[in-house]
């Protein structure tokens, strides 16, 4: 086997910590289905917008699907996915049949599953099946494993207080109750004026060994998460989303610093008041605390590599100095080797 193939299939030995910022302008970052008219999720105490990890993972899964990579937990809204059962999804992903499962052993079957299911290698999965697959597994005396995902995100929060649009749009919805009777109803389209969302994640090498996470998967994450926010938000309610900063710090072995997202803040002196923010030009992100922490001892000695990307329209500040992405990149070099990620360079995005 070539060195390239060895690197593509090699397991992950080091832990990574991730910070990902994106914003939403005149959009609903994550509606709450339990609220009236799917209103944006807002923390009642802090007035920060809240976005669940499930929402972010859905963006990533949908991008993996569009990249023609195997996805087990597929989006029912995607073309051709409506009405698919758990058995259908499993058999289709493995390109196998119920009878062929009966001829396999457990290792062969689920090694093949992890090979095909890119999203499970990242996020894990709780497997359960209907009668068709379950009967075949029982006949082959195969137990169903459960996978804890090595890549976990906490809920994202806006870095500031958010404001809902004072006027929500009225949507006319037509419901056909029978062949000759169409009934109209109205729903409100609630959106936030602006929200800069901060996500924190950990990529755990221990769980990665259980899902067969590869080095190539980790490299892919550096680009797919950015492209997901660009490509999977081209809908009516999600238009206005843009990725702004991606940071993955790979540490040595099982070490990670923790809470790197909390070390980013909005420079209030250089930013508009939160209730007046309308786009990224109203915000300056302070990175001084983040740089100081990463470059301190012994943290810097544990850093293998810093992989980072920032949108060209973002303004950063660090201990009184203002600048664009170059300031971020230069400051991070104080902590360790920096690689600037090009989101649309997919030479290793396989």
TL;DR?
By secondary structure, this protein is an alpha+beta fold. Helix content is 28%, strand content 27%. Helix 2 (53-66) crosses helix 9.
Note down, in words, how this protein is organized.
The chain is 28% helix and 27% strand. With 350 residues, the chain is α+β, with helices and mostly antiparallel strands. It has two domains: 10-52 and 155-166 and 186-340, no CATH class; 86-148, no CATH class. Strands 1, 2, 5, 6, 9, 10, 13 and 16 form an eight-stranded mixed sheet that branches. Strands 11-12-14-15 form a four-stranded mixed sheet. α2 (53-66) packs across α9 (215-231).
Biggest pleated sheet: 8 strands, mixed
Distance between the termini: 17 Å
The string of secondary-structure elements, in order, is: HEEHHHHHEHEEEEEEHHEEEHEEEHE
Helix content: 25-40%
Helix count equals 11
Oligomer: single chain
Mean pLDDT: 90
Total of domains? 2
Number of strands: 16
What are the SSEs and their pairings?
Elements: H1 3-9, E1 16-27, E2 48-51, H2 53-66, H3 86-94, H4 98-101, H5 106-116, H6 118-123, E3 124-125, H7 131-139, E4 147-148, E5 151-153, E6 156-161, E7 169-178, E8 181-189, E9 192-203, H8 205-211, H9 215-231, E10 241-251, E11 265-266, E12 284-286, H10 288-294, E13 303-310, E14 315-318, E15 321-323, H11 325-332, E16 338-340
Helix pairs in contact: 2-9
């Amino acid at each position: 086997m070539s060195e390239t193939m060895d690197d593509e299939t090699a397991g992950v030995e080091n832990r990574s910590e991730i910070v990902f910022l994106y914003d939403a302008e005149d959009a609903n970052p994550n509606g709450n289905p339990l609220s009236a008219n799917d209103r944006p999720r807002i923390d009642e105490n802090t007035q920060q917008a809240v976005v669940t990890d499930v929402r972010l993972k859905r963006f990533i899964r949908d991008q993996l699907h569009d990249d023609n990579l195997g996805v087990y937990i597929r989006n029912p809204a995607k073309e051709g996915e409506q009405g698919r059962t758990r058995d259908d999804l499993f058999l289709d992903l493995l390109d196998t049949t119920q009878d062929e499962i009966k001829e396999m052993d457990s290792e062969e079957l689920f090694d093949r599953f992890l090979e095909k299911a890119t999203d499970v290698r990242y996020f894990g999965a709780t497997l359960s099946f209907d009668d068709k697959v379950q009967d075949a597994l029982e006949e082959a005396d195969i137990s169903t494993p459960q996978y804890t995902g090595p890549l976990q995100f906490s809920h994202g929060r806006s870095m500031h207080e958010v404001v809902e649009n004072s006027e929500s749009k009225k949507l006319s919805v037509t419901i056909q109750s029978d062949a000759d009777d169409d009934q109209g109803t109205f729903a409100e389209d609630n959106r936030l004026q602006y929200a800069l969302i901060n996500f924190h994640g950990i990529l755990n090498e221990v769980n990665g060994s259980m899902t067969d996470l590869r080095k190539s998967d980790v490299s892919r994450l550096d680009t797919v998460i950015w492209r997901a926010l660009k490509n999977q938000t081209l809908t009516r309610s999600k238009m206005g989303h843009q990725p702004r900063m991606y940071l993955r710090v790979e540490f040595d072995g099982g070490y990670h610093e923790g809470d790197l997202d909390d070390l980013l803040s909005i420079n209030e002196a250089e930013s508009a008041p939160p209730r007046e923010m309308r786009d990224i030009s109203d915000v300056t992100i302070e990175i001084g605390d983040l740089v100081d922490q990463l470059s301190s001892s012994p943290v810097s000695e544990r850093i293998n590599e810093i992989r980072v990307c920032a949108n060209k329209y973002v303004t950063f500040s660090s201990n009184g100095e203002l600048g664009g992405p170059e300031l971020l990149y230069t400051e991070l070099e104080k902590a360790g080797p920096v690689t600037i990620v090009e989101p649309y360079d997919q030479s290793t995005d396989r």
